[in-house]
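Re: [ENG-882] Designed sequences occasionally contain unexpected residues at chain ends

Forwarding the minimal case from QA. Structure tokens:
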């Protein structure tokens, strides 16, 4: 029987079948682990009442973070099939999804702020064909808006998310007062927009 890691991150990955001791993690798992650790350092620890269930690929739709039903708190990441074997696409998609992994919700509803933060994290880890301001030129307008609204707040208040999540761990839902408290440069109108549900916001294309 393989010995489980004493590191809680690695132990969780081993339990999810993402590591194969004693050979160590696959390149995909190592990439995921690096991005998750970085996200927790930047934005605060993930909600560990949710157990990570692994990474899979799917043929239809875009990448997504999905949760189990029926009271069992498992969360999974799905990547698109074109990410198989492609380090650049894997990093691009994982950099977004690890932010959603920080505070999953059974309602699977995200705020404009959360999607903007996830998109900003993609921006930080962009490479290859996904570089610079061209990142979101091909993205739906709702993601462009979320990214462009959140980015200046994060850059003006680099520890804002850490402080905000120390007070309230969830990224969805949020209230405008919480955003204004930790991002003083945010105007009230912007704070209210960032607290809207992403797929119901006025800028959403879907």
């Amino acid at each position: 029987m393989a010995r489980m890691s004493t590191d809680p991150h690695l132990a969780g990955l081993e339990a999810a079948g993402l590591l194969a001791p004693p050979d160590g993690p696959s390149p995909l798992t190592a990439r995921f682990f690096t991005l998750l650790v970085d996200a927790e350092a930047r934005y605060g620890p993930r909600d560990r009442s949710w157990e990570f269930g692994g990474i899979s690929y799917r043929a239809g739709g875009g990448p997504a973070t999905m949760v189990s039903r029926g009271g069992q708190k498992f969360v999974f990441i799905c990547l698109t099939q074109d990410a198989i074997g492609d380090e650049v696409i894997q990093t691009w998609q994982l950099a977004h999804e690890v932010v959603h992994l920080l505070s999953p919700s059974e309602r699977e509803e995200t705020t404009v702020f959360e999607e903007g933060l996830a998109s900003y994290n993609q921006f930080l880890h962009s490479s290859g064909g996904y570089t610079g301001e061209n990142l979101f030129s091909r993205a739906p307008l709702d993601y462009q808006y979320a990214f462009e609204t959140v980015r200046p707040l994060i850059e003006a208040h680099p520890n804002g998310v850490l402080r905000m999540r120390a007070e309230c761990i969830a990224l969805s839902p949020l209230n405008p007062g919480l955003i204004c408290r930790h991002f003083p440069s945010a105007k009230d109108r912007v704070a209210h927009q960032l607290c809207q549900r992403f797929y119901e916001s006025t800028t959403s294309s879907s």
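QA comment: On inspection the terminal residues look reasonable. The two ends are 49 Å apart (CA to CA). Proposing we downgrade this to a documentation issue.
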